[in-house]
Design a protein that fits this description.
Number of helices: 18
Helix content: 40-55%
Oligomer: single chain
Low-confidence stretches: none
Mean pLDDT: 93
Structural class: alpha/beta
Strand content: 5-15%
Largest sheet: 6 strands, parallel
Radius of gyration: 26 Å
Strand order of the largest sheet: 3-2-1-11-12-7
Bound molecules: 5'-O-[(L-methionyl)-sulphamoyl]adenosine
Distance between the termini: 49 Å
């Protein structure tokens, strides 16, 4: 059995923005966690290359769409490597393999008698690649997301009989935990309860798309094509591309993680398409919120777009990950504020976690000959052990429920409590009396062990920092031993050597 998780397939009209980095980091964290608990993860990302929006972007640049897509797809691929994203599949919807899947899928849907020719009239947003509901019949009506004028369309298109699946979709969207969070679920329930309308799945004015077999001049509507990228990603390395084989390759997806603006496509249109083609529907759709900057929507016209490349170069991977994961509750909107970012990183990572590692290892090195102290097991104080065990249990429960901000918070709380424990015990005073040596050894051992567990819990969230903590404690983590097993209290080896200290996280300056 595989655990399949997907990011949206990003439009290649531009290079990645903070929104795409956000979704991809969350998927990466969940993938890393699932691998640590023993799942066979297939993490899919990729790019959505067809459609009017991309065709126009290429025309504006004066180049062929294919040349434009090759360029931007390569940027996305490199970008995810720079962010150390652990994706397994990178799908391009302009690939031949994908086209085979789309065509077979279309034949299946046609065989279910779900395709007919009709006339599509309405106001279209090229940015969303979507017809808008009831836009007050005015040519000056703007898309609320893109703030651009809508375009009037009136053409002959092929339609998909979405209305036929009203009951099945109603049942599906009411299934507990199919759509999360609850606000998103309610939005979709309302939308479905108003009655589903058939939607057009082909275009006659878009040449940059997959041709519809048997219908000259028609290319597939970009969403019909793109959603299938999740499926074609799974069999991209297989010689037999048939959809029948997909169940062995991991379909259906366990999670589609997407932004709230594209929920309808994933929670309504996509499942109906799959049912029509005789395929299984995804297990779960998580719709995350939107990121704003200093309280404002990010946009080129506002000139406040935050370039993720600059963030990465300036601050590094872990600080950005920590901020996006810990400060934004998955599902809610989030705001990126420069000052808050610097404060959070300095407080949580430098002053709390970094400082804990610093103090505990330096005391141990100084008093116990550069080693972890050897302790008397009988004497071992239990208070920190039980705090660490509770934090671990809570962390796992939160992660399993995809409440990753709360999981991150458990790590921070354990680090705060471990610092408090040290402050309370004051081993630097006790060590002055020879007779206190047993108790000091015990305190230091416990604090180092708690720090080891903090580092280990950080592994899916901040893989780089986690590895640095582990190396400062003498490389205790073993890939071949189950991660959960290594979270047990007492694994840090007594008397083992501590390496030379190196700073693991730098404080940031607010400019
Ligand atoms: N190509 C489609 C997805 C097809 S999936 C089969 C698409 N692409 S997109 O590049 O425009 O958007 C990708 C994702 O970025 C969406 O989930 C969208 O919600 C998200 N975001 C766009 N702006 C965002 C923010 N400001 N904040 C957070 N996420 C945002 O839609």
């Amino acid at each position: 059995m595989s655990f399949v998780i997907t990011t949206p397939l990003y439009y290649v009209n531009d290079k990645p923005h903070l929104g795409s980095v956000y979704t991809t980091i969350i998927c990466d964290t969940i993938s890393r966690y699932k691998r640590l608990v023993g799942e066979n993860v297939i993490f899919i990302t990729g790019v959505d290359e067809h459609g009017l929006k991309i065709q126009r972007t290429a025309t504006e640049k004066g180049i062929e769409p294919k040349t434009h897509c090759d360029e931007i797809a390569a940027i996305f691929n490199i970008n995810w490597k720079n962010w150390s994203i652990s994706f397994d599949k990178f799908i391009r919807t302009s690939s031949k393999d994908h086209e085979i899947v789309v065509k077979e899928f279309f034949e299946r849907v046609k065989d279910s008698d779900d395709i007919y020719m009709g006339v599509q009239k309405g106001w279209y947003c090229v940015g969303c690649e979507e017809f808008k509901d009831n836009p007050e019949n005015s040519p000056t009506y703007k898309c609320p997301i893109h703030q651009k004028n809508l375009e009037w369309k009136n053409e002959e298109n092929l339609f998909f009989r979405l209305s036929k699946y009203q009951q099945e979709i109603e049942k599906l969207v009411n299934t507990p935990s199919f759509i999360e969070p609850i606000e998103r679920k309610n939005e979709i329930k309302n939308f479905v309860s108003r009655g589903l309308k058939d939607f057009s799945i082909s275009r006659t004015n878009v040449s940059w798309g997959i041709p519809v077999p048997g219908y000259e001049n028609h290319t597939f509507y970009v969403w019909f094509d793109a959603l299938l990228g999740y499926v074609s990603a799974l069999n991209s390395n297989e010689t037999d591309k048939s959809l029948e084989r997909l169940n062995n390759l991991g379909w259906p997806a366990d999670i589609h993680l997407i932004g709230k603006d594209i929920l309808r496509f994933h929670a309504v249109y996509w499942p109906a398409m799959l049912i029509s083609a005789g395929m299984r529907v995804p297990q779960k759709i998580i719709g995350h919120g939107f990121l704003t900057r200093e309280g404002q929507k990010m946009g080129k016209s506002l000139g406040n777009v935050l370039d993720p490349d600059l963030l990465l170069t300036k601050y590094g991977n872990d600080p950005v990950r920590w901020y996006l994961i810990k400060d934004i509750s998955l599902g809610n909107d989030g705001d990126f504020q420069d000052k808050r970012f610097v404060d959070i990183i300095n407080n949580d990572l430098a002053n709390t976690i970094g400082n804990l590692l610093n103090r505990s290892t330096s005391m141990s090195r100084k008093w116990f000959n550069n080693k972890v102290p050897a302790i008397d097991k009988e004497f071992n104080q239990k208070s920190l052990a039980s705090l660490a065990n509770i934090a671990t249990e809570n962390f796992i429960n939160h992660f399993e429920a995809y409440k990753i901000d709360l999981a991150a918070d458990e790590i921070l709380k354990l680090a705060i409590n471990t610092n408090l424990y040290l402050n309370d015990k004051q081993p630097w005073k006790l060590i002055k009396e020879e007779s206190n040596i047993t108790v000091v050894k015990d305190i230091i051992y416990c604090v180092l062990e708690s720090t080891r567990i903090i580092g280990l819990l950080l592994l899916p969230i901040l893989p780089e920092l986690s590895k640095k903590i582990d190396s400062q404690l003498g490389l205790i983590y073993k890939d071949e031993i189950p991660w959960k097993k290594q979270l047990k209290w007492g694994i840090l080896q007594q008397g083992s050597t501590l390496p030379k200290p190196i700073p693991i996280i730098n404080k940031l300056e607010y400019e």
